[in-house]
């Protein structure tokens, strides 16, 4: 499908939203691959506020922990940055608000919203999906265990991309940490150390770590 070409004087900004509880190599590989394929200048990672999709299912780690793990994981990549926009807005995060705020903050950027197969399928069923097309170009990436459906929307402001298959989820990492199994090499080393430092997922009730 049609990918917006580079426009002189405008920055190509990838946007990777997520709970990042914790951030893992699946997120990082997806962002890196899309950045290369679409010639993005920067990818901004945007940790959510308290996500409504997950309320009632489990307690999401404190925003500050999720934010700091995202900073640790992305700090060494000169094209990766982290935004506090959803955390500082507070409450549930809606993609429409994320994109609206980033537009206001970065008027000289064209936004490319990067999302895994599972989240892409959800996104297109949301009631604001019409407005979303105007705010960003959408990039749905492959994810093991999920079928990447073609959203088949009229605007066509999206494309589907294959990225290296990383069968990693935050849910699995939380579960492994709770069971004292290793999480090395699933997340960056600094994130392993951060999880251990604050005993983030070490609670006994490992049932609360199961979802989706
Ligand atoms: P959880 O299990 O808590 O839902 P997650 O691993 O799905 O965590 P999220 O923070 O929910 O991570 O995901 C943020 C974004 O990254 C979503 O668009 C999701 O589809 C995408 N994503 C997550 N893991 C992968 C992966 N292994 N490969 C490709 N995309 C991924
Ligand atoms: Mg998820």
UniProtKB/TrEMBL annotation:
Pfam families, A to Z:
CTP_transf_like (PF01467)
Q: Does the keyword Signal apply?
A: no
| Cytidyltransferase-like domain residues | 15-176
Q: What is its EC number?
A: 2.7.7.18
The family line of this record is: Belongs to the NadD family.
Xref: HAMAP family: NaMN_adenylyltr
- Pathway(s) where this gene product acts: Cofactor biosynthesis; NAD(+) biosynthesis; deamido-NAD(+) from nicotinate D-ribonucleotide: step 1/1
The UniProt function text for this chain reads:
Catalyzes the reversible adenylation of nicotinate mononucleotide (NaMN) to nicotinic acid adenine dinucleotide (NaAD).
The protein in question is named Probable nicotinate-nucleotide adenylyltransferase
């Amino acid at each position: 499908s049609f990918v917006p070409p580079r426009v002189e004087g405008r920055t190509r900004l990838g946007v990777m939203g997520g709970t990042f509880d914790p951030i893992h190599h699946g997120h990082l590989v997806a962002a890196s691959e899309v950045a290369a394929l679409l010639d993005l200048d920067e990818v901004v990672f945007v940790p959510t506020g308290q996500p409504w999709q997950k309320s009632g299912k489990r307690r999401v780690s404190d925003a500050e922990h999720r934010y700091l793990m995202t900073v640790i994981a992305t700090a060494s990549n000169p094209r990766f940055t982290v935004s506090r926009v959803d955390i500082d807005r507070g409450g549930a995060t809606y993609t429409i608000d994320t994109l609206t705020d980033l537009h206001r903050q970065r008027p000289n950027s064209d936004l490319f919203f990067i999302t895994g197969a599972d989240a892409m399928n959800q996104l297109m069923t949301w009631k604001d999906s019409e407005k979303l097309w105007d705010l960003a170009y959408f990039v749905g990436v492959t994810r093991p265990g999920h079928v990447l459906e073609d959203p088949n929307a009229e605007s066509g402001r999206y494309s589907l991309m294959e990225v290296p298959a990383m069968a990693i989820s935050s849910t699995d990492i939380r579960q492994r940490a709770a069971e004292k199994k290793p999480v090395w090499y699933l997340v960056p080393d600094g994130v392993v150390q951060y999880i251990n430092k604050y005993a983030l997922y070490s609670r006994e009730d490992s049932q609360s770590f199961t979802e989706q």
